[in-house]
Amino acid sequence: MIKLVEGDKAPNFVGEIQNGNKVALNDYSGKKLVLYFYPKDNTPGCTNQACNITENIDNYKNNGFEVLGVSPDSIKSHVKFIEKYNLAFNLISDETKNICNLYGVWGPKKFMGREYEGVHRTTFIIDENGIIEKIISKVDTKNHTNQIL
Fold this sequence. Notes:
The protein is an alpha+beta fold. The chain has helices spanning 44-55, 57-62, 75-85, 98-102, 144-148; strands at residues 14-17, 22-24, 32-37, 65-71, 90-93, 106-111, 114-119, 122-126, 132-136. The chain has one domain: Glutaredoxin (3-Layer(aba) Sandwich), CATH 3.40.30.
């Protein structure tokens, strides 16, 4: 796993969002970006996190932030997730795990004694110049907005 630190230049990425359009880090040049990685659509923690962000989306916008979620789920899964919870931001489908690997969030995990490869829930706050301002690796899914803002 790559280990990024605050102050690093954020790795450039290109990914496909739920409507099939491509987005890249460069699209957010001059803007602040909350780029958050999560394990799986429609799971309790991931749903809490996405809903917490959606409920506070005006706070993000008022503070000049754009929000992008990233997981290895398919576009079809993202569409269902967004529609089910009326999510107010875009989700990148990273089935190849290219973006997850660029940001060093894909790697070994343990759950109930089982080891497997997966996404380490992590949020990167990227400034207008593409520099990582803050990394949140201990995410409180129900109160994530408070951690970010």
